[in-house]
Structures are given as structure tokens and as C-alpha cells.
Amino acid sequence: MEVDHVDLAYPHKHADGTALRDVSLSVPAREHTAVIGRSG
Questions:
Q1: Does this entry carry the keyword ATP-binding (predicted)?
Q2: Rounded to whole angstroms, how far apart are CA atoms 34 and 19?
Q3: N or C: where does the chain have the smaller number of CB atoms within 10 Å of the terminal CB?
């Protein structure tokens, strides 16, 4: 969670799901949807 600013640069690294939740708050709605789709 300390790399909450890297999520934008490495969304695939946060595909785990844990950081994804924190990222969703920082990432735009459209970006969030795209990331969520990958996570399943």
C-alpha cells in the first residue's frame, strides 16, 4: 500500500486485488473499471 502512487504506472502489478481497492480511489472511474475488469 506504500506504493499507492505507482499503481498508475503499474496497474498490472496491482491486479492482485489488495492495492486495487486503494487504487480505485485514486484512479479515475473509467480507469477503475478497466482495472476491475482485469481483476475479474
A1: yes
A2: 15
A3: C
Q: Where are the domains of the chain?
A: 1-40
- The pLDDT of residue 30 is above 60: yes
- Cβ atoms of 35 and 14 closer than 8 Å: yes
The answer to whether 32 touches 10, Cβ cutoff 8 Å, is: no
Q: Is residue 1 pLDDT above 50, yes or no?
A: no
Taking the whole predicted model, whether its pTM rises above 0.70 is answered as no
3-class secondary structure, 38:
helix
Give residue 9's identity as a one-letter amino acid code.
Answer: A
Q: How many C-beta neighbours within 10 Å does residue 5 have?
A: 9
